[in-house]
Amino acid sequence: MSKKSTRATKPKPDPDAEGSGTKTKATSLKKVLFVSQKLLPTDADDQKLRLERFFHPGQGKDALFLTHPDGRMMEMLEYAEPRRSWLVNSEVCSNGKIYMTTPLDSTLLAIHHLRKHCAQRAMSLDNIAVDEPSTSRLLNEILNPESLRGVADVKKSGDLIFYKYNSERALAWLALKARHVAGVLKEKHVHCGHSAQSQNFVRSEKLEAENSSSEMDYTRMACDIGGRYLDADLHGLLTDYLHVPSEIQAMVEEKAAAQKRKSKAGQEGGGESKKIKLNDSDAAGKLKSSGLLDSDTDHNVSVSSPTAPLKERSLTAKEKALAKGAEGTKSISSFFKAK
After folding, report:
1. 94 closest CA partner among 27, 23, 33
2. Contact of 90 with 25, CB cutoff 8 Å
3. Where are the beta strands (DSSP E) in the chain?
4. Please, which residues have CB within 8 angstroms of residue 172's CB and are 6 or more apart in sequence?
């Protein structure tokens, strides 16, 4: 006897089968990158953005950078969280990382190579790191040679130009950069203190008024932002040059300042709150409306006087009948006593 086919026994269509319009692909070749539209080359320009690797002094290894045809450079920042993916149209991108670009002055990367090769003698850029193609491209094709005048001594011999690293000039140039970044942070009202502060639940006017970040807090953060692209020892020299205190000392100073602000606020708002004083006539009117006094009570008697006792209110006929019916009955709490 053949089994009769029903809707439940019919095979379901495979969404990934050939000819299906809802086919889903799993791929990790596509990545999500956020970049400013102003950095993209125009349609008339045949050149394109290049993704290259250069030595990152702050990380001590090569890192990804995005270079523009006109010589601009952008660092590639990567934000990764576990178990994340992207849905791009009908495709599933298993690489759930987010890539962003931030503008970067290529002189910051060049300082490392000048300190390494040109600290004792002057050299031309085409003779520095000849065996390193990425470094040679950075110094000769991307970097503007005029920008090195702020960090090195420039000497000319005919058509040749030689550069020698100058530590004092480089620190002054880096300090100028740090002060410029600190000014931008202060203009944007960025919280630079050590204590956490949420900007999601605070109005901008109140946040601006209560921003307790000092000038040194802005300088410290600006120094750390620029120090991400410097060698560790050079970053330390920059903090000493700007007289930025250590992290522990800054936390102690901020804690002392917070206690001072708290004590000042307590002195300003520590006065006794004024109590609302009611007149005797107002109190008598409220007492009358509450129904606690008999109708024949003299309402002109001051309620504040302890020598004028209040009369008990007489029961109505309905209340007397209820009280009489309740005689001889037990209280409900008697059922819950321990036997």
Report:
1. 27
2. yes
3. 25-27, 32-34, 50-56, 61-67, 73-79, 86-88, 91-93, 98-104, 152-157, 160-165
4. 150
Segment 325-338 mean pLDDT: 71
Distance from first CA to last CA of the chain, Å, rounded? 75
Residue 93: other Cβ atoms inside 10 A: 19
Per-residue pLDDT at 27 exceeds 50: no
Closest CA to 108 of 50, 59, 40: 59
Helices (H), 20-64: none
In Å, what is the CA distance from 45 to each residue of 49, 62, 67? 11, 29, 15
Enter the tokens of residue 207: 């946040």
Rounded CA separation 310/291 (Å):
12
> CA–CA separation, 235 vs 223, rounded Å?
8
Whether 330 shows a pLDDT value over 60: the answer reads: yes
Using a 10 angstrom Cβ sphere, with 0-12 exposed, 13-18 middle and 19 or more buried, the burial of residue 39 is middle
